[in-house]
Structure formats: C-alpha cells, structure tokens
Specification:
mainly alpha; 0% strand
Length: 78
C-alpha cells in the first residue's frame, strides 16, 4: 500500500509541476565606464588577497616549525 501511495504521489507531483520559463526582457545597458569600474574593484580585491595569502602561509609555516621544534625538544629531554 505504501508503494502504491508513493507512486501515486510521485506521479501527481510530476504531472502538476510545470517548468518555469523565465522571460528575460532586461537588456544590459551599462556603458564602458561601469565595466572599467567593476574591473578596477576586482583588481583591488585581488591585490589585497596576495599579501593576505602570503601572511597566512607565514603563520602556518611558523606554527608547523614551532611544533617540530617542540617535538624535537621533547625527544631530546627523554
């Protein structure tokens, strides 16, 4: 009975669901200055990410090095 109920529900949902076709009536109307501004903003974001990534790698490298030194000191004490 459950399989029949599930099958009927699935069939009803498939028949009732109609695809939504969106009609695009808006046309891109911005000029070249808008594109230049967006490109400049993207350039600023990328330029800010480079030092942040370098700093992140430095922090990770420092943490790994400190962990290795700590392990080496613990082995030397034993």
């Amino acid at each position: 009975m459950k399989k029949l109920n599930l099958s009927l529900t699935t069939l009803a949902l498939c028949l009732a669901a109609t695809p939504a076709f969106a009609a695009s009536t808006k046309v891109y109307n911005s000029g070249i200055l808008v594109l230049v501004f967006i490109g400049f903003c993207a350039l600023v974001v990328v330029a800010q990410m480079i030092p942040a990534i370098i700093t992140l790698f430095g922090i990770i490298k420092g943490a790994v090095t400190a962990r290795k030194q700590e392990t080496a000191e613990a082995k030397a004490v034993e």
